[in-house]
Amino acid sequence: MSNWRTRVEPFTRPLFFAWSRMARGKTLGVRGVAVDATGRVLLVRHTYLHGWWLPGGGVDRGETIEQAVIREMREETGLIVEGRPRLVSVHSNERFFPGDHVLVYRIDTFRLTDHAPNGEIAETGWFHPDALPADTHRASRTRLAEVLNGETSDPDW
After folding, report:
1. Cα–Cα distances in Å, from 18 out to 15, 29, 93, 98, 157?
2. Contact 107/79 with Cβ under 8 angstroms?
């Protein structure tokens, strides 16, 4: 079942991109690959996009990239990063949004808090990499293969 945000998002996204381009010029995003003790990975399902994704988002002005991934993990999933996340790869998202780059971090040390879905995140879930939901986004599947299986990192998102 699709909610109103999923139906409206294709029309509002170009406006968001235009605003982002005027306000920032270039954009920078982060994604976190949290791996629990059993080897499962944490994914999110947004209220405005189809499928499952790695948690993450944009780097805010005045924030380091590492601070951004820590903040995004907490905001989207309730996961509290302990220690430092490890930078795994950097990707250009030119195909989807010119001037955008995404950095991927691996997070192995964390604690979980009670976290209810919010207006942005409809659902969170832990999945074994060999049993991801069928609608896991292609980019998330590719990043997981790179991070967990040692596949060569594709510079394109």
Report:
1. 5, 16, 16, 11, 20
2. yes
User: Could you say which DSSP state residue 108 is in?
Assistant: -
Tell me which H or E stretch contains 129: none
Helices (H), 32-134: 65-77
What tokens appear for 127 in the block? 């999945």
The span from the CA of 135 to the CA of 138, in Å, is 9
Query: Pick from 153, 45, 141: which is nearest to 103 by CA?
Result: 153
**25-42 average pLDDT score:** 94
Measured CA to CA, the distance from residue 36 to residue 31 in angstroms comes to 16
Mean predicted lDDT score pLDDT of the chain: 90
Q: How far apart are CA 146 and CA 101, in angstroms?
A: 17
In 13-133, where do the E strands start and end? 27-34, 41-46, 52-53, 56-58, 79-81, 86-92, 100-107, 110-112, 121-127
